[in-house]
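>> received
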Amino acid sequence: MRQPVIIDRSRDPHFMREALALAAQGAAKGEVPVGAVVVHNGEIIGRGFNCPITTSDPSAHAEMVAIRAAAQHLANYRLPGCTLYVTLEPCSMCAGLIVHSRVQRVVYGATEPKAGVAHSRGEFFTQSFLNHRVLVEGGVLGEECGAVLSAFFKARREQR
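>> returned
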């Protein structure tokens, strides 16, 4: 029989602020400001921000970078018991990686109405064909995360 998963949400805002700080690092490099951290046993073991432009790597989304770092930290391609905090709802590419890496929980800030697959454009993580279930929660510091993205794109439009 499966043991119930006990989730401590009290530190969610703290870890989302860590992800927001990483998003700011990405924005400073001209990248879309999305940040992510992977947490295991209350410790950040992976950090990342969007960097597909600066690395010429279309897969270098914040989630990808943070999950790669966490896997290296644990020396394991699976991340059981880990929570991914990301400032923006994951896209389909990142959602696939989240499932394959066996992340236990995803906590995101702002919704992504165009490409988010946790809730906005379908509920990918609830699909019956998946062999791993991910707990998903959205809206943690959602307004703050959304404001960072809105300000970035507003400034970009004004530059044109």
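>> The longest strand covers residues 43-49.
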